[in-house]
């Protein structure tokens, strides 16, 4: 019996849900930072996401959750194995949420290395850390703003490059660490350093549901779930399967999505108008708009896809449609 609240049963909080879905389709967006008060459904949504995602094929008993390519490329086998390809066995396992506890040390996160053993056994000398478990999974950091800055740096570097490198006394061992990064925080407990939050793809602000009918529905569904989780999950099984299929289809379709020169110019002009530093915002909007298009089965990014992406990356702006229209007119006039 599954004891996970269904993603499709979550009432409201559309921003959280779409941001999580988009990162599930395209982890290169760079994760989600969800800012909001306690009790707004942040953690429930994160845990529910893993249950939606397709199973992954991994090398059996691998602490790194790797596929065959990474297993061989990174040499994630004993140096004494002469023909590692011959005996590889695989498992299909569900994706999971790997939580990072606030008190975690750097060794706990990146892993620890027995130097003497490393000289003889290579990767076998590594005691894998949280970044190994998180590979190809969801890495969830609640109260990310309370995590030590140096640990956040380590996590964001791994997220950006997809590799975890452990270096001790001239010895370096690495393994893949590609994950969907999700951080949640309550701004009243302190802000995350700007240069760190800027490196997370989507930053969204959420509040509790204000509609009375929806608040009543939340209470009813929560009570129903707690009374009989199995029956409640069965009720949403069809919706779960439909959304799962949609996500799986979007993952396969993503590479086929095209974006026009006009929309690229609109992105550049919008970020300049917002005073965005560097190019992170431009790239995040580009990736997010293509992912929204894939989720909606659009072969070409539309204005609506673009608007959705800008709102998720730069925040709400009631004049956004007007700004996009004015920029399109300027581009057209320039071409004429």
Query: Which fold name corresponds to the CATH topology of the largest domain?
Result: Rossmann fold
Order of helices and strands: HEHEHEEHEHEHEHEEEHEHHHHHHH
Q: Please work out how many helical segments DSSP would assign.
A: 15
| CATH level-four homologous superfamily name of the largest domain | P-loop containing nucleotide triphosphate hydrolases
Taking all Cα atoms into account, the compactness measure Rg is 22 Å
How many extended strands? 11
Q: Could you tell me the mean pLDDT? A: 84
Q: CATH class of the largest domain, please?
A: Alpha Beta
Weakly predicted, low-confidence segments: none
Describe this structure in words.
With 336 residues, the chain is α/β, with parallel strands linked by helices. It has three domains: 8-206, 3-Layer(aba) Sandwich (Rossmann fold); 212-253, no CATH class; 257-335, Helicase, Ruva Protein, domain 3, CATH 1.10.8. Helices cover 48% and strands 14% of the residues. Strand 8 (163-168) and strand 9 form a beta hairpin. The N and C termini lie far apart (64 Å).
């Amino acid at each position: 019996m599954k004891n996970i609240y269904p993603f499709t049963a979550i009432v409201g909080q559309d921003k959280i849900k779409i941001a999580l879905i988009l990162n599930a389709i395209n982890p290169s967006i760079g994760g989600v930072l969800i800012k909001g008060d306690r009790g707004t459904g942040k953690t429930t949504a994160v845990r529910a996401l893993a249950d939606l995602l397709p199973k992954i094929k991994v090398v059996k008993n691998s602490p790194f959750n790797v596929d065959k390519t990474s297993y061989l490329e990174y040499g994630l086998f004993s140096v004494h194995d002469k023909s590692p390809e011959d005996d590889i066995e695989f498992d299909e396992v569900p994706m999971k949420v790997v939580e990072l506890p606030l008190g975690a040390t750097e060794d706990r996160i990146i892993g620890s290395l027995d130097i003497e053993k490393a000289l003889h056994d290579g990767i076998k000398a590594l005691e894998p850390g949280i970044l190994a478990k998180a590979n190809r999974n969801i890495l969830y950091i609640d109260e990310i703003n309370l995590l030590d800055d140096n640990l956040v740096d380590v996590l964001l570097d791994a997220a950006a490059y997809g590799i975890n490198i452990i270096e001790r006394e001239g010895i370096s061992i690495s393994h893949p660490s590609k994950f969907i990064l999700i951080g949640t925080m309550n701004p009243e407990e302190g802000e995350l350093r700007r240069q760190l939050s800027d490196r997370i793809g989507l930053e969204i602000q959420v509040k509790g549901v204000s509609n009375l009918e929806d608040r009543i529905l939340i209470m009813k569904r929560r009570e129903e779930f707690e009374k009989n989780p199995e029956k409640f999950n069965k009720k949403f099984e069809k919706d779960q399967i439909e959304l799962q299929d949609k996500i799986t289809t979007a993952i396969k379709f993503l590479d086929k999505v095209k974006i026009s020169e006009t929309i690229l110019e609109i992105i550049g002009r919008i970020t300049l108008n917002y005073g965005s530093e560097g190019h992170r915002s431009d790239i995040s909007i580009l990736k997010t708009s293509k992912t929204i298009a894939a989720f909606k089965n659009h072969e070409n990014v539309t204005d609506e896809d673009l608007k959705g992406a800008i709102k998720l990356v730069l925040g709400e702006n009631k004049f956004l449609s007007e700004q996009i229209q004015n920029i399109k007119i300027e581009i057209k006039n320039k071409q004429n």
